[in-house]
Amino acid sequence: MFIQTYTYGNVPIEIWEYPFYIFLLVIIWLGASYIQRKNITTKPEYRYFLWGLWAKIIGGFFFACIYIFYYGQGDTTSFYECSMSFCKLLFHNTSDFFTVLVGDGSQEMKSFFTAETGEPMMYMFGEGATRFTMKLLIPFMLLSGQSYFITTLYISVFTYAALWRLYLLFTSYFPLYRWHLAVAILFMPSVIFWGSGILKDSFTLASVCIFIIFTNNIIQSKGSFIGNIIGLIIFGFIILSIKAYVILILLPSTLVWFFYNKIRKIRNVLIRVLVVPFIYVFILVGSYYGLSAFGDSLGKFSLNKALLTATITQGDLKQEYYAGNSFDIGSFEPTPAGAISKFPQATAAGLFRPFILESKNVVMLISGLENLFILALTLYVLVRIKRKTIGRLIDNSPIILYSLIFSILFAFMIGLSTSNFGALVRFKIPLIPLYMTCLMVMHCTLRQTQLRYKSVRKK
Fold first, then answer.
1. Counting Cβ atoms within 10 Å, is residue 233 exposed (0-12), middle (13-18) or buried (19+)?
2. Is 308 helix (H, G, I), strand (E, B) or coil?
3. pLDDT score at 1
4. Engineered SS bond to 137: which of 70, 83, 96, 440, CB 3.0-4.6 Å?
5. Percent with pLDDT over 90 in the chain
6. 58, 317, 281, 321: which is closest to 191 by C-alpha?
7. Helices (H), 264-397
8. What's the whole-number mean pLDDT along residues 413-423?
9. Strand pairing category for 11-14 and 4-8
10. Distance (Å, whole) CA 152 – CA 196
């Protein structure tokens, strides 16, 4: 029987957690150091492996501390408490556990929980995405002995593994830009902080990264085709189950990447001109019918409800009780034309807000500084880089086109439908690594072009 030392809200911290947490840090450090030493001689990008891992672990630790010791509660503690009920049910009645695990969010399923196991909150248990996230947390909770901080540590390492794979993917395309890509993918503060805790956003971030990796494997004919398809289905299902609206962006962006990769191999200009319009019409039509088929899973973000959801959200977040923590892009009609009319404001909000002057606390201030850096780099690239350079870069590396389309559309969607800064900074983390990668690659390409120009002039 372990001795409980403190309880913060409904989150207990027991004596055994302290030495076990330190023990795990040592094990992780030893394992990561071995991986780095094994690879660094042939793969120079591994010089950032340990730095990125420690940044993610520290980010997760501070995330947990802020929500436990400062706020005292939040979505993260609610997920923890609800998942703990699942874990206790497993040991209390295994048969009931598996019944609930595959069941829905009905009151009947909730009745399997008892006073001994504790009951998950109905507002979370009854909602499909939050209930699915609780179930994803179960293996992490079991491995951690139901410790909040150790579960957070596991999630930090898990999400870092996905980000590291994404980093390796982009360094395979741009091996000369290792440091800049490390900044873009491994060291952005929002990704480090919001993508390391017990939240839906951590699982979404990791799943999007792995989805991109499997997509690239299929496009580049790497590995087992069947295995890659299975991987896409699994992580596509996870994304669909947690944040279904991300599929609204992933599907058309992936189709553009796939077909553009095929189109650019056609050398006959006339054939390309004739084929391209049909391809993109197919993408639009295919995406529409494909997403329509997911209508029930997408819920309020389905094609026929998304715009209405966005207008309702905008209207609600203008109420007085959100004052100081929300922004307004202006009213719009729930029609495609109405939404498109807000494209500049919504996209700018998704990419660059909150601004520094809109930051009300330390966490928002860090996000504001990060957004200032992103905005400054965006303006620098837009002013200095030439259209031909961008066209040549995209033609040589269609993954940049994919990253741009995904980032811009994702920013537009969350800027249109989310006006709360607290939600915005979390929702946007899947786009940050991809958007920053585009900026860094363009910046490095511009710098190389300038160096070559100066070299030619000297000669």
1. exposed
2. helix
3. 38
4. 83
5. 50
6. 58
7. 269-293, 295-298, 306-316, 336-340, 343-352, 362-384, 387-396
8. 82
9. antiparallel
10. 7
**pLDDT digit string (tens) for 147-170?**
999 999 999 999 999 999 999 999
Q: Which amino acid is at 57?
A: I
Burial of 130 (C-beta count, 10 Å sphere; 0-12/13-18/19+): buried
CA–CA distance, 96 with 119 (Å, rounded to integer): 13
Q: What angle do the packed helices 17-40 and 148-173 form, to 10 degrees?
A: 10
Q: Which two tokens stand for residue 424?
A: 């915005």
Burial class (CB in 10 A: 0-12, 13-18, 19+), 80: buried
Task: Output the CA torsion 121→127→133→135 (10° steps).
Answer: 70
Kindly provide the residue ranges of all beta strands, DSSP E only, lying in 226-345, ordered along the sequence. Answer: none
Q: How many CB atoms lie within 10 A of CB 393?
A: 18
Longest dimension (CA), the chain: 82
Q: At 164, phi and psi to the nearest 5?
A: -65, -40
Rounded CA separation 257/272 (Å): 16
3-state secondary structure of 440: helix
Structure tokens at 48: 């950032």
Q: Kindly indicate the confidence band of residue 2, based on its pLDDT and cuts at 50, 70 and 90.
A: very low
Assessment of whether the complete model's pTM goes beyond 0.85 = yes
Q: Please say whether the beta carbons of 221 and 173 come within 8 A.
A: no
Cβ–Cβ under 8 Å, residues 111 and 96 = no
Q: What is the chain's length?
A: 459
Contact residues for 383 (Cβ-Cβ < 8 A; gap 6+) = none
User: Kindly report the CA angle at 404 between 399 and 407, in degrees rounded to 5?
Assistant: 120
- Lowest mean per-residue pLDDT among 108-112, 150-154, 260-264, 301-305: 301-305
Peptide bond into 139 cis (omega under 30): no
